Amino acid sequence: MTVKICCAFILAFLFSTAFGKYYITWLRKQKAGQQIKGQVTWHASKSGTPTMGGLMFILAVVFVCLTIGFPSMLEGNFVHLFVLVFGLVFGVIGFLDDWEKIKHKQNLGLSAKQKFLLQLVAALVFVLLMRKMGYVAPNLYIPFSGKIIPVPEWLYFIFASFVIVGTVNAVNITDGVDGLATGSSLPVCLFFVGISFAWGQKYLELGIFASALFGGLMGFLVYNFNPAKVFMGDTGSLFLGGSIAAMAFAYDMPLVLIILGFVFIVETLSDIIQVCYFKATHGKRIFKMAPFHHHLEMGGWTGKKWSEKELFVLFTGISFVCAVISFIGVFQRFAI
Predict the structure, then answer these.
(1) DSSP state string for 199-226
(2) What pLDDT sits at residue 16?
(3) pTM of the predicted model, to two decimals?
(4) What sections of 251-286 are H helices per DSSP?
(5) Residue-wise pLDDT tens digits, 87-119
(6) Which end of the chain has less neighbouring CB within 10 Å, N or C?
């Protein structure tokens, strides 16, 4: 088990790093550049930086699942493929959004309504399929307490669908600074890898997926760290968010996302609070700019303007602490 999970990381890292070297050059030739929003004037110099770089770690995960994960498929274990396919569906939605942006040379792709409906349908189909295959049950495990609360099946499906869509968009919102979504997601992947070791052979396939995603992201970070040579785009961020949400349900502990995804939740809440307060007060703002990372970039409430590298360290550090807390809260559930 240890060898396979470690190999998944190494193989994904090497694949993502090697592929990225040529892929970024190809993106530049295709002029697949990201257009920067006008409000974020200090990022204007990044306009034209290649986007859709998320394909680097997506293909790395696909490669690992179909190679190291192949023996499990022969034994009839397909849970890692369900998570992969679900992530790919969201990646396709992100690709359509990125393509619209590139085609029209603007920062707006699919409409919010179009993205929400596509994501909601994908989430509902995934949960129904996982339920039919016996990978999830209509129960909610409460971290730290060890208690399991039964939920009516219809309510569980509604809950799951909106949690998945919320997680996907929260990760997408966080992808606004070089390496930020990547760094914030790395500890999340490590958490799932750690849980696979703690819970044993039954979770090998999910451990392979989580380790592959961790390795793919590390390889992508080589090019995405400030100053970024490529952005993951919605192609990458939606795949990443979908994969994180899918793993939480595949491990049958979606409520752990409250702690594990704290960084993403803060980013999303800052956006929601800003919009609601702006409308309620007819133009006043709580944050200098939302989401929260832009607020910090502009000086926040203290006047200190955080650099992109400082934000990367801050968000990754907080995410790591949350991953450790989450691990403590759930590891005893099936610990071997």
Answers:
(1) H-GGGHHHHHHHHHHHHHHHHHHHHHSS
(2) 98
(3) 0.93
(4) 257-260, 262-280
(5) 999 999 999 888 877 776 655 556 778 888 889
(6) C
